[in-house]
Amino acid sequence: MFLSLLLLFPQIELLPMRPKVVAFLLLLLLIFAGLVYRHHGLSLIRPEGGARLRLTGIRCVCHDRKCKAALHSMMDMRTDRVPRIRHILWKSDRVSAYFAKQLKSWTDIHPGWTYVLWRDADLDRFVAKHYTGALQKFRSLKENIMRVDMARYLILHHFGGVYADLDYTLVRSLDPFLKYTAVVPIETEAFALLYFGMSTWPPDLLGNPAFMFSLMANPATDVFTFAGPLGLSAMLKRYATDRPAVSDLSDVVFVPVSRAFSSYANNSLRSSTSEYKGGIMDALNRQCDAVRKSTVSPPELKSYCKDVYNLDPITDRRELAFAIHDSNKARSSYDKRGSPQFYKDSVSIRTVVPNVRMAREII
């Protein structure tokens, strides 16, 4: 499944010229752990008039007529709920040429947004000032990436806005999504299969996301199950079980199809480097061996595993792509265990985002 803590009330406004907002868009762009299920336009709403409407590529969790009617009327709404802020979390104020190119894709499409750089040194100060109750847990985490994962949820809770990993290239404006309360993208089926094999988490409708992420109560000690995809996915699923229905539009979370935010170039893994094919593709093939032998594997998985380099059988090419998750890499991008291009030919982030705001200025 995927991850997302979605709080509706950012406490600080970075854009003084805009009215206060009550929602944020979370593009954490990791994976819905094992969610190897084909998504199309699954959101169906029934307003007071009883007409059945399809929201292409969007899933909603409205369960009563009042909420569904409000959702329908919102489709033409021009008011943005999401603040136009992108939070960038990185180790320093320098990024590789590889990441600089991807950052530029964001500023080219959204030049008027506010971009905030959070360095490692800023995170402890932020948590200490605004989330003192979580500070002990934050400092006790054994790996830096776990602290980064935890901090980004708290940052989004506090400020609202958009978070995306550095290896995402923006290819289309996010404006169509800014009117929603929250948008939670999922990873491609191939990526889910790679990390979580044949296990699946049913694409149940997510419940009200207006809750505080219970990080301090999570006993997990590894990256994936603490604040990574498994940890947050489990909490979202538990929360959805506890609160299965909503009656207010602000309690709705939307899940676009994987094609929208996690596309591969040309919709094929063949665009990846030999490093990717040599390592990750081998792992995918091993997972597919189990799928082929299984008598209970979903048809979509069996179709995909006929050619693991081709996403066409389970990825709807008709859906527009808004961002592309680069597959020309291997392993982590944060702790110097990944591909060399993560750190090669570094430049100041200001050369790419001249008006970037340093987090220390707003903490």
UniProtKB/TrEMBL annotation:
Pfam families in the cross-refs: Gly_transf_sug
GO CC annotations, alphabetized: membrane
Gene Ontology terms: biological process: mannosyl-inositol phosphorylceramide biosynthetic process
Keywords assigned: Transferase
Record bears the keyword Transferase: yes
Keyword Transferase attributed: yes
Gene Ontology terms, MF aspect: mannosyltransferase activity
Family annotation (InterPro entries): Glycosyltransferase_domain (IPR051706), GlycoTrfase_DXD_sugar-bd_CS (IPR007577), Nucleotide-diphossugar_trans (IPR029044)
Protein name, UniProt field: Glycosyl transferase
